[in-house]
Amino acid sequence: MSSSLTSSLSQSDDGISHDIYLLGLPAPALVAAQEAARLGFPHGQVKIVGAINEIEAGNCERCLVVLGHPDSAATLTAHASGSPQCAVVVLGPHQSDLTETVPPEEWNPPLLVRVFKSALLEHELLRENIRLRGDLKTVARRVSHDLRTPIGCIYTTSDVFKELPPGDAESIASMASIIKESAAEISLIVDRVSFILKASADPITPSRVDMGGVLATACRQLEAEIQLAKAKIDLPSSWPEVSGVSSWLAVVWTNLLKNAIQHGGPSARVQVEWKSGNGYCQFSVRDHGHGVSADHLAGLFSPFDQMHALHVHGLGLSFVQRLIFLQGGRCGYEEAVDGGARFYFTLPVVR
Question: Domain map of the chain by residue range?
């Protein structure tokens, strides 16, 4: 278990923004639940909803649903892609085998704080266990498959080398170039997989980030590609203060900018923007290319731990998705209004 898991819920003021949904609670339970949420999760967002479809469980690890009756628990604890959707607590006299139930005589805020935090921690640990098992399957199946092609190419090229006449410098140079490209592909896969597994197993605690400096680092790393493509990167004049990990964000920006340069068309114009709201900042990279075809949309941000079961290629956006997830954010894609692709991610603001 990573050290950040238990510490994130061990304090009453942990700085993490949780979504706490209250659904179908009788008046006494509603009052107690609201007070418990205020005491235990001062940075949380409490939302009273009238139906399950009003619950937005996109950030599952930080989503708690408090119900007045266990009938809805089965839907909310159902497994989507192997992972439970939300942490659920029922405040009512009816016992449930699916989730923690608190009877009316125990509806006091201090006790509910402990119950809510325990439910979130158990939920997070379960999801982490499922995620780590998925990581192992991806490394064992998907990554080995991705490595097989460049390794096979090296084997084949080596056999061709044996047949080349010693004086055929042009053919030798061509074969050497193929081997070099295949070795670079293998190196990239190994580097990305080792990076993402290390980040997941031993996460770094997020801190205040100089996003302008991070993006400048990414642009320097891509300077040769930017010049070769005659691309132009439009940057905002100012940056917000957010919570994150600078080294991870440099990798995120590098991947998104490189993607925009490659798919933005000739002399690509890439726009980097940000906006804030609801305790988060959203950062985006957009280009003016052809966008993403409909048949590729579903697999864009496939979680790394699910790639062993999916027919998608490349690790780039899955790599980005995991790093942003570990920093408490989310990733997404949308087609730009006037054409092109817009990839975005969110991070918590500095409080």
Answer: 3-130, 132-201, 207-348
Q: To 5 degrees, how large is the angle CA 55–CA 56–CA 57?
A: 105
Rounded CA-CA distance 37/41 in Å is 5
The pLDDT value recorded for residue 7 is: 39
As a whole number of angstroms, the distance between CA 233 and CA 17 comes to: 32
Helix (H) or strand (E) holding 269: strand 269-277
Q: How many helices (H) and strands (E) does the chain have?
A: 11, 14
Q: Indicate yes or no: pTM above 0.70.
A: yes
- Residue 338 corresponds to which tokens in the numbers above? 């006037």
CB atoms within 10 A of CB 110: 10
What type of residue is 49? V
| pLDDT, average across residues 46-67 | 80
Mean pLDDT of 121-127: 88
Q: Strand, coil or helix: what is 338?
A: coil
In CATH terms, the fold of domain 207-348 is Heat Shock Protein 90 (3.30.565)
CA distance 140 to 169: 39
Task: Name the fold adopted by 3-130.
Answer: Rossmann fold (3.40.50)
